[in-house]
Every structure is written in structure tokens, then in C-alpha cells.
Specification:
Layout: H1 2-14, E1 36-42, E2 45-51, E3 57-62, H2 75-91, E4 97-103, E5 106-112, E6 121-125, H3 132-141, E7 150-153, E8 156-160, H4 161-172
Antiparallel strand pairs: 1-2, 2-3, 4-5, 4-8, 5-6, 7-8
Length: about 170
């Protein structure tokens, strides 16, 4: 029952996620040296999974929103693109924190190397009109305790990604 509730919450929150119309640069496909990010079907849904060095597979994001499908960004395409972005930023040491911001007038989830820092790289764009901070909090709090890696600073949330993976692994065991 708890797993079904979790999936329902993930589904609800991830349905608000969308992807920017920015294509991934082929150089973003660097070789991983730790955690590997892939897009796989998880419980029948395209999902960005993080495979940690201890071989645990942690679902990070599920992709169900058809918001940009007419522009060629169906859930499977978005999953592939964003999983590549996670890998790129992780490999380059930029995936220290996930936070929110605005790019091109749109609410986004992005990466930054330090708590309190601004967006240094786009992970994905959200639908217009959504509250990016609340969406990111809901999305990441699904798998971690309230005392988890969520850090509020100046109205923005900063999620320590390694802490998130550690706590998320414990909840899926």
C-alpha cells in the first residue's frame, strides 16, 4: 500500500515536469566514474535511474507528462535527454545540489555546485505557472524523510544530491 501511495505521488508530481527545447550536446555523453544515470522503464514508466557504485538502482524521476509531446518531447524522449544531463553534470562535478530558478522566462530545475548558488546547468524545464521550488520539494521528499537533504535558502530549495541518493537507497530496500 505504501509503495502504491509512493508511486501515485511520484506520478502526480512528475506529471508536472517538462523539458526545455534545448538539445543535449553530444559531448554530454561522457563516461561515468561513479553513479550511472540511465533511462529505463520502471514499473512501466520511463524513469531516470541512478545506478550507484554499490549497484543499487534508485529511481530519480518518472516521466509521464505529455505536455511537450507535440514538440517532439514525449516522456521517453525527455527521459533519455534528462538522464544524459544528469550524467554529464555528475561526471563534471556540477551535480552537488539541485535547485530551482528561471531560464528563458520558464521555471526550471537546475544544478549548482554550492548551497546558495545560482543555476549552473539546466536539468529540465517545468510547465509554465508551476511553483518550481514546491515541485522540487515534493518530488524529492517522496523518497526521503522530512529531515532529509532538503535545505531552504532565500525561498529556494537546495537538495544535496549525494545525500538524496543515500537516503533514497534506504527507502527502496
Amino acid at each position: 500500500m505504501i509503495k502504491l501511495k509512493l508511486l501515485a505521488t511520484v506520478t502526480t508530481v512528475s506529471a508536472t515536469l517538462t523539458l526545455s527545447h534545448v538539445a543535449i550536446n553530444p559531448s554530454m555523453q561522457a563516461k561515468s566514474v561513479g553513479t550511472d544515470f540511465t533511462c529505463q522503464n520502471w514499473q512501466g514508466v520511463p524513469t531516470t535511474l541512478a545506478k550507484t557504485p554499490d549497484q543499487a538502482s534508485v529511481p530519480v524521476l518518472t516521466w509521464q507528462s505529455d505536455y511537450f509531446s507535440n514538440a517532439g518531447y514525449d516522456p521517453s524522449t525527455r527521459c533519455q535527454l534528462v538522464s544524459g544531463r544528469f550524467q554529464y553534470f555528475y561526471n563534471n562535478g556540477q551535480l552537488q545540489y539541485m535547485t530551482t530558478g528561471r531560464m528563458n522566462g520558464m521555471p526550471v530545475v537546475c544544478v549548482t555546485e554550492e548551497k546558495g548558488g545560482g543555476c549552473e546547468g539546466l536539468l529540465f524545464t517545468l510547465k509554465p505557472g508551476v511553483d518550481p521550488t514546491r515541485t522540487l520539494q515534493q518530488l524529492m521528499a517522496i523518497r526521503v524523510r522530512a529531515s532529509g537533504p532538503l535545505n531552504q535558502t532565500d525561498g529556494r530549495v537546495y537538495i544535496n544530491f549525494e545525500d538524496y541518493l543515500t537516503q533514497a537507497k534506504q527507502t527502496i530496500k
